[in-house]
């Protein structure tokens, strides 16, 4: 390997491990901090935006932590956190994403964008896609800010045509200046891809999320959601009273909460006594029925195991029918299991 390709090993305090990417405009290395022994990513960006990465250095959640930004002639050298999670693209290939998990991912991503867009001036990512998002089943990290930019209100259009075809908003192809709604456009495309596996122009999602996708991916920036908060609110309006669903709480955390609650309820029901049930087997079933009823409520409330995919009218665009479908379905499931158990009392 020539000396230029090994620049990652030449930065003071870091040792080169391997080359991840080597292009004229961008080189990416895996390096190790000689003092802390922490593995990091080093980027060497030709004509990179040093000021942008210095601003990103002040953001400590939802993006790879930026440790160091150095300017070297025409290059900008960035040392940032090495994220060991798979990309969202790799994750969705290996896992079947349920509707609840998709919405949880979108909530986390929009929360990250709220922080970026709230910067002065706003930081616009401009290349949101599954390959630039890390996801390990519960935490979303938005990465690759190499074509990100800061919004300039006096600029009539972008000076460079950048972005990934299919995810990039029309204005990124030179028709207008890129604003925060360009990221909203990409979020709409991403939502469609996560729900259907296809870009919107090939196949658009049906049901309750179609309206959100259509608005987010409007060709006119003025017709889209004007902020990540506004798009987040659109998801929140779809939430149902019988299910808070807590989309921002990762599924493993929901499972842990349910297990802790279950253990408490198991201890309570194990000590229950009743005069009506005389046989030991009947008493065991009675206790199990009480335990099941008590644990079933938070299971429905948290939607820990995505129970709503088994409910009636789950994709109906009308809110009242979705509510009715969940109430009827969840009550019916409880009733059937209860009848089966009570029959053995």
UniProtKB/TrEMBL annotation:
Keyword Ion transport: yes or no? no
Molecular-function GO terms, alphabetical: ATP binding; protein serine/threonine kinase activity
Chain segments annotated as transmembrane = 255-272, 284-302, 323-344
Ordered alphabetically, the record's keywords are:
Kinase, Membrane, Serine/threonine-protein kinase, Transferase, Transmembrane, Transmembrane helix
Q: Known SUPFAM superfamilies for this protein?
A: Protein kinase-like (PK-like) (SSF56112)
What InterPro entries is this protein classified in?
A: Kinase-like_dom_sf, Prot_kinase_dom, Ser/Thr_kinase_AS, Ser_Thr_kinase
Question: Origin, by domain of life?
Answer: Bacteria
Record bears the keyword Membrane: yes
The family database entries (PANTHER family) matched by this protein are listed as: MITOGEN-ACTIVATED KINASE KINASE KINASE (PTHR24361)
Provide the protein name.
Answer: Serine/threonine protein kinase
Q: Which organism is it from?
A: Sharpea porci
């Amino acid at each position: 390997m020539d000396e230029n390709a090994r620049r990652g090993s030449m930065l003071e305090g870091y040792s080169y491990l391997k080359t991840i990417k080597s292009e004229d405009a961008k080189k990416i290395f895996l390096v190790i901090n000689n003092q802390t022994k922490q593995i990091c990513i080093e980027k060497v960006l030709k004509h990179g935006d040093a000021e942008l990465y210095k601003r990103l250095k002040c953001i400590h959640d939802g993006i790879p932590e930026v440790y160091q930004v150095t300017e070297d002639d025409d290059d900008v050298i960035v040392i940032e956190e090495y994220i060991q999670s798979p990309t969202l693209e790799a994750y969705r290939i290996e896992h079947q994403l349920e509707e609840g998990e998709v919405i949880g991912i979108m909530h986390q991503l929009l929360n990250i964008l709220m922080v970026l867009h709230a910067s002065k001036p706003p930081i616009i990512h401009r290349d949101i896609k599954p390959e630039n998002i890390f996801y390990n089943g519960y935490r979303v990290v938005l990465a690759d800010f190499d074509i990100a930019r800061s919004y300039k209100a006096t600029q009539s259009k972008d000076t460079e045509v950048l972005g990934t075809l299919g995810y990039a908003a029309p204005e990124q192809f030179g028709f207008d200046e890129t604003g925060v709604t360009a990221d909203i456009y990409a979020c709409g495309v991403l939502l469609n891809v996560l729900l259907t596996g296809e870009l919107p122009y090939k196949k658009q999602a049906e049901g309750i999320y179609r309206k959100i996708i259509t608005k987010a991916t409007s060709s006119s920036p003025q017709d889209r959601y004007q902020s990540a908060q506004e798009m987040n609110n659109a998801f929140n309006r779809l939430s149902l009273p019988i299910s808070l669903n807590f989309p921002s709480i990762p599924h493993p955390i929901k499972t842990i909460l349910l297990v802790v609650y279950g253990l408490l309820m198991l201890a309570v029901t194990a000590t229950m006594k009743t005069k009506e049930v005389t046989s030991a087997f009947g008493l065991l079933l009675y206790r199990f029925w009480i335990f099941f009823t008590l644990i079933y409520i938070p299971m429905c409330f948290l939607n820990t195991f995505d129970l709503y995919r088994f409910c009636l009218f789950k994709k109906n665009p009308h809110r009242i029918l979705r509510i009715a479908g969940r109430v009827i379905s969840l009550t019916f499931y409880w009733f059937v299991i209860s009848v089966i158990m009570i029959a053995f009392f």
